[in-house]
Design a protein that fits this description.
The strands form three sheets. This protein has an eight-stranded mixed beta sheet with strand order 2-9-8-7-6-3-4-5, sandwiched between helices. The longest helix is centred in the C-terminal third of the chain and has 22 residues. Helices cover 39% and strands 14% of the residues. The protein is built from 14 helices and 13 strands. It folds into two domains: 145 residues, Aspartate Aminotransferase, domain 1 (Alpha-Beta Complex); 243 residues, 3-Layer(aba) Sandwich (Aspartate Aminotransferase, domain 2), CATH 3.40.640. By secondary structure, it is α/β, with parallel strands linked by helices.
């Protein structure tokens, strides 16, 4: 067996299952899960119709490159959304079966384990807390993850300027998630400028995970990686978007997590190699899914309706929870990253007792992070995925308030 498999941590939801083992939730309450970030809003009917009406495509082997109409639809969406120059759909865009498989695969395409030195294995820099695929991809590619902790004082952004030069010298890949999971933090143009300079100086690839980009709570859409590159003069010339690839998905944007449809875009030289890798790994998208994806990328009305639902939920739920927990509206995304230390409970005990007493599931923050630089930045926090409809989200928030107020050690937070 591959010895690197022994380095993998249990997935957060397996840890949660073990945490809840032997617990019988209060039968007076119907179950509500805020644990898994799986969109629960209905899939738009026009996307379903496009999938059904193109089912005859199952009779054909799909190309790993994807059809030209799909690549063109993705390229045009990127141009509209981020105001970037026209992309070459043949070389700068690659459809994938959801961003997860592509985020995992890119490490195997990029990492050169033979580059290990006396200082150690190649490094993959990751935010902390993080999407666990980044860590697993690093280990199985023969590298080691290096975690950069999110900082509450920076609105949960990571301070990449604090990373020692010796780390960057060993770095071959940087995973970046903006808007972040679970914090909702976004990367600023100044941070992008620093990261591009570091990537050029130390010759590593930036893999920007942007699957939450279309869920935001103000009028300002989050800055995208390609947009930042364009504004900093890196979208033109002989090598546009050098050392940058962007990953996105329809799962959250269009409420189709089961369709497994996303894309990678950016550096054409990297995508050429990644296409070769995926040709061998068998990652072609089914023709009916391609047809439904074209319909989804070409429509913005359903995206705005979806965004409005999230805005309504967050603006109703966040003030309720703020009465009993330290929690603020995130920059973007559909998670609340709540500090539960006022309850007098650890994040794991908070989750376990909330499940037992009120049948509400949340995910302990320490399960989403690693001990790094003397701390676990997820400790004392829980992640709440506000993915269900408004009424269920409000019900969950009301139960959490009742739970917190029932704790003898809890102190109520007063707000002005």
């Amino acid at each position: 067996m591959n010895p690197h498999l022994d380095l993998l941590h249990p997935y957060p939801f397996e840890k949660l299952r073990q945490l809840f083992a032997g617990v019988t939730p209060n039968p007076a309450f119907a179950p509500i899960s805020l644990g898994i970030g799986e969109p629960k809003h209905p899939t738009p009917a026009f996307i379903e119709r496009a999938l059904i009406h193109n089912v005859q495509g199952l009779a054909n082997y799909p190309s790993t490159l994807g059809g030209e109409p799909l690549r063109a639809a993705i390229a045009h969406w990127l141009e509209r959304r981020y105001g970037v120059p026209p992309l070459d759909a043949a070389s700068q865009v690659l459809p994938v079966n959801g961003s997860r498989e592509a985020l995992f695969g890119i490490a195997h395409c990029v990492i050169d384990p033979s580059a290990a030195s006396s200082a150690g294995k190649p490094l993959v820099v990751c935010p902390n807390p993080f999407y666990q695929i980044y860590e697993g991809a690093a280990y199985l590619a023969g590298a080691e993850p290096y975690f950069v902790n999110s900082e509450p004082a920076r609105n949960f952004a990571c301070d990449y300027a604090s990373v020692p030069p010796a780390v960057w010298q060993r770095t071959q890949l940087l995973y970046l998630c903006s808007p972040g999971n679970p914090t909702g933090a976004t990367v600023s143009l100044d941070d992008w400028k620093l990261l591009f300079e570091l990537a050029d100086r130390h010759d590593f690839l930036i893999a920007a995970d942007e699957c939450y980009s279309e869920i935001y709570h103000t009028s300002d859409a989050p800055l995208g990686a390609l947009e930042a590159a364009h504004r900093l003069g890196r979208a033109d010339g002989a090598h546009p978007y050098r050392r940058l690839v962007v990953f996105s998905s329809l799962s959250k944007r269009s409420n189709v997590p089961g369709m497994r449809s996303g894309f990678v875009a950016g550096d054409a030289a990297v995508l050429k190699k990644f296409l070769l890798y995926r040709t061998y790994s068998g990652g072609a998208m089914a023709p009916p899914v391609q047809a439904a994806s074209i319909a989804a990328w070409n429509d913005e009305e359903h995206v705005q309706e979806n965004r409005n639902k999230y805005r309504e939920k967050f603006h109703l739920v966040t003030p309720l929870l703020r009465q009993v927990l330290d929690v603020e509206l995130p920059d973007a995304g559909f998670y609340l990253w709540a500090d539960v230390r006022r309850s007098g409970l650890s994040d794991t005990e908070f989750a376990r007792r909330l499940y037992a007493d009120y049948n509400v599931t949340v995910l302990p923050g320490s399960y989403l992070a690693r001990d790094a630089h003397g701390v676990n930045p997820g400790q004392g926090r829980v992640r709440m995925a506000l993915v269900a409809e408004v009424d269920e989200g409000l019900e969950a928030a009301q139960r959490i308030v009742l739970f917190c107020n029932s704790l003898p050690s809890h102190s109520t937070i007063t707000t002005s």
